[in-house]
Amino acid sequence: MRKTRHITTLGAAATALALLLTGCGGSDDKTDAESTTTGETTAAGPTETGGDGGETGGETAAGEGQYGGDLVMVREGDATTLLPTGSPLNRDIWIDELIYEPLLAPSADGKSLEPLLAESYESNDDATVWTFHLREGLTFHDGTPVTAADAKFSIETASDPETPFGFVNDAIVSVEAPDDLTVVITTAQPWSPLPSDAAIFSNGVIPKDYGGKTAEEFGDHPIGTGPFMFESWDKGNELKLVRNPNYWREGLPYLDSVTFRTVPEENNRALQLQSGDAHINEFPAYSSLDGLASSSDLTATAFNSSRTDFLAYNVTRSPTDDVHLRRALGYAIDREALNDAVLYGYGTPGTAYINPALWGHYAELDAITYDVEKAKEELAQSSMADGGTLSVIVESGAPNEMTVAQVLQENFAAIGIELQIDQVDGGALYDVLASKNYDMVILYCTTDIIDPDQMIRFIGDVDGGYNAMYSWYHSDELVALADEAATINDQAQRKALYDQIQTIFNDDQPVSTLFYSPAVYSYTTKLHNFSVLPTGNYMLTEAWLEQ
After folding, report:
1. What's the CATH number where 329 sits?
2. Do 463 and 440 share a domain, yes or no?
3. Residue 416 and residue 379: Cα distance in Å, rounded?
4. Same domain (yes/no): 337, 451
5. Nearest to residue 365, comparing CAs of 248, 507, 216, 537?
6. Could you read off the pLDDT of 90-104 as tens digits, one per residue?
7. Is the pLDDT of residue 23 over 50?
8. Are residues 285 and 345 in the same domain?
9. Which end of the chain is more exposed for a tag (fewer CB within 10 A), N or C?
10. Residue at a domain's end among 185, 217, 249
11. Are residues 509 and 524 in the same domain?
12. Per-residue DSSP letters for 219-269?
């Protein structure tokens, strides 16, 4: 079987509530649809067709794939909780999205929203009252009927400001269930992002009152409505989901099970894929992609992604509380070198903190980019004018992050700053960050909804769910502009406010945008219909394995 590597990249345009997938970036020697066997150029790229409920169709429609198969995905770290409101980590979220379903979902191409558990919805004239109509006959994995009371409980629980994504529901003042199939959400003021907010994973519908369990118990043994059901979890090793035989999308899914196996070391993940012990390697090293060209049994795809990688500065303590130092470091970063060294040319050097996948991206921003002379000028005005030592946290077992840190060492040395690299085990990482006892940390994020509002707050403000990428940054002006933008229906007016926000953030530089990267997965050619949305969701409902 011929093996083709799909190279796809991101672009942006102002289309309402849209993620637009257009070609941009990439290195000169890697073109879209480049063959990895003979060097021929072929039409390539993930096939995406809208399925009922937002799943991709790809090569087959329901009823045309092969049933059966136990899919194994190897990944760097284990999940931490399966409570949909319990974690900001993608390693948890992407599993949650196979177990739980919200009212709506992004379409396969990310350009619109599609019905999921709600078959339709509408709002009043001033967009403050939103009415969602549930599908009839929905059941949870245990056979219990799904009602509007469950959706009410789920959305109210997800609105808790103490949860990582509670801020997404900030505008909601009430959720009502006037009958078993109707959910009515009222917002304090007109709120344009509400339909997109309703599609976030944390608003996934769970049984009212956790089905009689505590939240912690439910997070270890979850029940949802999704295509796969929880079966077992050997923490630190593997987590297994099995086919939901009563899934509301008749005839789906095809796979009998999906197992997420924790394999921290990249070479071991690659070996398990090559030996056939695994079917998908989540986030293989970019350096390994060309090596797959000699295999007729494996393929790799760079899926369109909203992923952005950042260097976050701890603004709560000296010396990184100094804006001139942060600007100096921002100017010292050679993002082209990072793209070459880390992404092997597959990514795009970063500018604005909002990813080009979102229509809110400010492409014309006068961004802080690589300029050694400006870096030295800013450093001269800082508390480290004579140079010194800073440290950066890198999660252990993450080769790409380590490469980023090593490039940053070279970049900062050019302006007299020595960078110390501190590796922290993934299980302890967020405890270390919560302590605020560090200078800098390398992190990344992806969007979970197709409206820019989430990322504007998630990255841009300490109260946005992720502590502003653990920079702990807050700007009253930025938050006021974000609140104003969310109440406006006019796309151009909202975009103008988001441009202002990105200018403020760029000037304050609590976080340096490093690069925008595709989501790369390597996998067996026996796997069909596997794809990944720009929001990061695994499309496994229609995926199938050749038997």
Report:
1. 3.10.105.10
2. yes
3. 9
4. yes
5. 507
6. 899 999 999 999 999
7. no
8. no
9. C
10. 217
11. no
12. HHS---SSSEEEEEEETTTEEEEEE-TT-SSTT----SEEEEEE--SHHHH
- Beta bridge partners, 257, equal 70, 242
What average pLDDT does the structure give for the chain? 87
Tokens of 182: 């109707």
Residue 364 belongs to a domain: yes
| Total number of domains constituting the chain | 3
- What does DSSP assign to residue 80? S
By residue count, the chain amounts to 547
Token pair of 17, please? 């509530």
Helix, strand and coil content of the chain, in percent to the nearest 5, comes to 30, 25, 50
Three-state secondary structure call for residue 227: coil
What is the pLDDT, as a whole number, of residue 536?
Answer: 84
Same domain, 187 and 104: yes
Helix (H), strand (E), coil (C) string for 435-458: HCCCCEEEEEECCCCCCCHHHHHH
Q: Identity (one letter) of the amino acid at 142?
A: D
Three-state DSSP at 434 gives: helix
Q: What pTM value is reported for the model?
A: 0.75
The span from the CA of 101 to the CA of 118, in Å, is 10
Residue 527 domain boundaries: 6-78+235-305+518-545
- Asked if residue 52 belongs to a domain, the reply is yes
Q: Are 510 and 501 in contact (CB under 8 A)?
A: no
Residues β-bridged to residue 422: 393
Over the stretch 231-288, which tens digit does the pLDDT of each residue have? Answer: 999 999 999 999 999 999 999 999 999 999 999 988 999 999 999 999 999 988 888 8
Alpha carbons 260 and 241: distance in angstroms, whole number:
8
Asked if 211 and 293 sit in the same domain, the reply is no
pLDDT by residue (tens digit) across 144-185? 999 999 999 999 999 999 998 898 899 999 999 999 999 999
What the block records as the tokens of 36 is 């990895």
Spatial contact of 397 and 426, defined as CB atoms under 8 Å apart: yes
pLDDT recorded at residue 5: 27
Residue type, 466: Y
pLDDT band for position 12 (cuts 50, 70, 90):
very low
What pLDDT score does 4 carry?
Answer: 27
